[in-house]
């Protein structure tokens, strides 16, 4: 899916493209901006298509890679692998941030997508537990760690790239391409998972069906890398690279001179980290395993919600350009504090229509955060440490609270017997993000440093 092909004739992006250039964006033609949008979209799409395939097929993967005597334990171990692969992401954030701020956004992004594509393809070829025993989950974990490392540079780099290429008054809209691409990856993953579970028998799905999404990621990733190698780094980065650097490495400068922004950014990411993986990745498993909804219907409900979510993302990006990042992010946190637990109560109504409407509501609430966060984080840090600041703050929160969200949600339900536990967990994340955003400065009206 190419968001620009579908939307470049629309008023918002047409206005963005015709906006006069500024000193921070230089003389950038429309064709270059289109390539930047396409390259950013495809890379993130491939990254999160893989995460979707793993999350939505978690029950099948649990049966393939772990002992099946205790399905609940196997599912917990599957989500445990998902969570452990996130622990490498802070390390990846430091490394990719350093590379992106030193050698350029384009080079870092081209390498990250190549690593992700290779690891994803290798997962598709892995034998299961029945063939090689515990070597199967160990190899699965190894390739998931490689994926987690590569993903640490993707979201941050693409956001920085887009913000630096965007017209000054449309940075929110352009940066919204990044969460839109992740949601589109999840959407295709949901559609494919729904199709596989409805068309294939359990035996066929566990034998070869689950491998198809991982095989598809390889050609898409190579296409994304090819597009990225044809781009130049942003005028803002090239200009910053000319300046005399007396601050040492980007990471050292970040920790020494921008530690307060780093802490606030990590706190602001918390709602996004928990919300994204609970609402968009874990939800089909929650609906089918905890609430007893038939698997195909649970995938269908998530798919419908994702379609509306993608549309809301771009509206949120435009809204943040008009109203400011802080106002939109604060609104998102307040809505999650007030409405999350009632929404989870409504999910247990037994009505498919209500389930779909609740998921649309939760998705719309999340877009207020998700659609604003990329531009907000990129604008918090000056150009010389932008990639590092974004990557470290984003990946630390995602490692501690995002990748662990499905595991924690499953564990909380198992330990407490309370089906509302994921809702309370999400509400707590919203409170912390609210405090962080209130303490931060508005960024949308300022030129990039």
Question: Main attributes?
Answer:
449 residues, mainly alpha, Growth Hormone, Chain: A, 80% helix, 0% strand, disordered N terminus
Shape: globular
- Average pLDDT: 85
Count of folded domains: 1
User: Strand percentage, roughly?
Assistant: under 5%
Radius of gyration: 21 Å
CATH fourth-tier homologous superfamily: MFS general substrate transporter like domains
How many helices? 23
Helix content: over 70%
How many angstroms does the end-to-end distance come to? 33 Å
User: Per CATH, what is the topology?
Assistant: Growth Hormone, Chain: A
In terms of per-residue confidence, which ranges show pLDDT below 50 for 5 or more consecutive residues? 1-23
Please identify the oligomeric state.
single chain
Could you say which structural class the secondary elements and strand pairing correspond to?
mainly alpha
| CATH architectural designation | Up-down Bundle
Order of helices and strands: HHHHHHHHHHHHHHHHHHHHHHH
The biggest beta sheet reads: none
Give the beta-strand count: 0
What is the CATH first-level class name?
A: Mainly Alpha
